[in-house]
Amino acid sequence: MQSAITVRDLTKKYDEGANGTLALRGLDLDVHAGELLMLMGPSGSGKTTLLSIMGCILTASSGSVRIAGREVVGLSEKQLPALRLEHIGFVFQGFNLFPTLTAGENVELMLDLKGVSASKAKRRAQELLEQVGLAEKYSAFPSDLSGGQKQRVAIARALAGDPGIILADEPTAALDSHTGRNVMEMMSDLAHKRGRAVVIVTHDSRVLNFADRIIRIEDGAIARNTEAEMVPPGLLSQHFPQPGLGLA
Amino acid sequence: MPPLAQRNLFHDKVRLTVTLTGIVFSVVLIVVQLGLFLGFTTATSNLIDHSGADLWITSKNVPYVEQGVAFSERKLNQVRAVPGVEDAQKLITRWTQWKRHDGGQDSVQIVGINVDATMERPWNLVEGRVEDLKSPDAVILDELYKQKLGVSHVGEVFEIGGYRARVVGFTRGIRSFTTSPYVFTSFKNAQDFANLREDQTMFILVKVAPGASLEQVRRDLLDHVKDVEVFTTSEFSRMTTFYWMFTTGAGVAVLIAAVLGLVVGFVVVAQTIYATTVDHIREFGTLKAMGAPNSYVYKVIMKQAAIAAVLGYALGMILSVFVVHGSQKGGAAILMPPQMAVGMFFLTLLMCVGAALVSINKVTRIDPAMVFKG
Question: Which of A130, B55, B290, B322 could bond to A135 as cystine, CB 3.0-4.6 Å?
């Protein structure tokens, strides 16, 4: 299976020099198209840093990161936005919708960035909102939506650019169990039915059953010994949720 | 592009009001000050610009029209003898005292002309005729100064410089820059009112014959007529304007006020757009995380600034029109030619877009990773 994201010997150091903090230490990781990977670990372990580097938002200090086969370490700041736009969709813990735009306009914004004409963008935005079950909310503002609805709009927006990779940072943290489950089902569909590579950073043990793989990160490295478990893609999600799975 | 700029701008009504108030204040202040400057400039050289003359002959060292020095009127014949001179007429302008019916006195500027000639005739008459100045003691003044001089209608008699003066007509819009109104009269009357001898004049106006070279005639006049200076109308107009506007500092004061208006507008707009940008910083961070290049983000901010500029300009100009209109009956006219209105639009746009650069600097430094902070 081709890797959507390939990470080799990745290191990230904040504040170069003797007083610098090593956030990531020589990480190796592959993320495949069609799988849902969860990154777990305590606060400050480097999960979000890893996600940011995979998302071409932060630059690595050393190592290699390949996105859709293209090396991104060493690219200039000006080249990264185009890469993000082409290959990556983001879903955020705080939804990060634009409060002064309607649900539909939030999705159209991504399409506008991709250079889609206004009329086509409107049609495509309507299709995407329909796919996430929010067709009737096209003209609603985020302040009129529930948390789950906002996250679904965010997912529609992330999909608007037709990216091969979806990166989500705590997508269910602000949601109740039922709503969180709905969102995770959608994320699972993105991976298993639409063939996206989905990487989710989470503390939420309620959603572990959706993962194809769970990687635990501690102190900037993958903890392989007891808590990192490699599960064949798709196998875990076929079973009834088994909380814990030996993970803290 | 989805209407992000417009929505951000109109989202906070209070901030929008502050922004527009700043722009309106700036626009009105600049228009009023520049309009005053134009009005003053026009008023200072009114008499010269409307003279119909090509050349002005003065005594030596006369820096502006109100500073004329009397000289022999015999020079008029010398002037007329110079080739290329089609017509030459004497002119008097001098300050003197106008006595009102209540006994009070006001300073006026007598303008004494040859009523039969075509140069320096009063213009924009709303009552009476220029030819009425041939009558004894006849004077024409501007309706703007009726109240100041205690005049209510044509036919009233007053005293100027101890001589009888009878009002035969009114003009409209002939302002003097100083507080002393122009009072047009015949040359003979002016000699009396201004306490000049019969053989004296203060200026000679020259009309150059068609086809003759202005510079050549000027040089010839200097060669043939002793102890005088010869200026073109535009030259003398500029000298007079420069004296009143810059040597006295009056013009500098209004220009400084105009610049202050621009600075105030800039600061207010910069502050409010910056505050709006900070309020929406997370959204701009999200935009960048989504893959928007910096130029896209800049476009949003610039669009906000441009919309604010257009709205503020429109409101400011509506207010300015009222102010300009209201000033027409006052002592100091505020002028707003179409070119100023157009120029003001671009200045407002420049001011707002320039102010937005402060915010541009802020968003350029956004770390997109901030979107991951909950």
Answer: A130
Give the strand pairing for A21-32 and B125-127.
unpaired
Asked if A84 and A57 count as a contact pair (C-beta separation under 8 A), the reply is yes
Whether residue A120 lies inside any domain: the answer is: yes
Contacts B292 to A, Cβ<8 Å: 81, 85, 113
Gap between the Cα atoms of B265 and B19, Å rounded: 9
| CA dist., res. A168 & res. A148, Å (int) | 15
Per-residue pLDDT tens, chain B, 374 aa: give them.
889 999 988 988 999 999 999 999 999 999 999 998 888 888 889 899 999 999 999 999 999 999 999 999 999 999 999 999 999 999 999 999 999 999 999 999 999 999 998 899 999 999 999 999 999 899 999 999 999 999 999 999 999 999 999 999 999 989 888 889 999 999 999 999 998 999 999 999 999 999 999 999 999 999 999 999 999 999 999 999 999 888 888 888 888 988 888 898 888 888 888 888 888 888 898 999 999 998 999 999 999 999 999 999 999 999 999 999 988 877 778 889 999 999 999 999 999 999 888 888 888 888 777 777 65
Full domain range(s) for residue A165? 3-238
**Are A223 and A217 contacting, i.e. CB atoms less than 8 angstroms apart?**
yes
ipTM of the complex: 0.84
Cβ–Cβ gap A98/B286 under 8 Å? yes
Contact by Cβ (8 Å): B188, B146: no
Q: Which of residues 6-65 of B touch A (CB under 8 A)?
A: 7-8, 11
- pLDDT digit string, tens, across residues B194-227: 989 999 999 999 999 999 999 999 999 999 999 9
Domain count, chain A: 1
Residue A247 within any structural domain of the chain: no
| CB pair distance less than 8 Å for A82 and B4 | no
C-alpha distances out from residue B192 to A31, A93, B98, B129, B216, Å: 106, 93, 13, 22, 36
Q: Is residue A73 part of a domain?
A: yes
User: Dihedral, CA atoms, B65, B71, B73, B78, nearest 10 degrees?
Assistant: -90
Judged by a CB distance cut-off of 8 A, whether residue B290 touches chain A is: yes
- Annotated domain spans of chain B: 4-43+249-372, 61-226
Q: Which of B287, B368, B372 is opposite residue A48, by nearest beta carbon? A: B372
pLDDT at position A1 is 53
Classify residue B150 by burial, with Cβ atoms within 10 Å: 0-12, 13-18, 19+: middle
Tens digit of each residue's pLDDT (9 = 90 or more) over B134-150: 998 999 999 999 999 99
| CATH code at position A188 | 3.40.50.300
CA dist., res. A55 & res. B204, Å (int) = 85
B1 contacts on A by Cβ (under 8 Å)? 112
Residue A243 resides in a domain:
no
B163 in contact with chain A, both atoms CB, cutoff 8 A: no
Residue spans of alpha helices (H) in B50-158: 75-80, 146-149
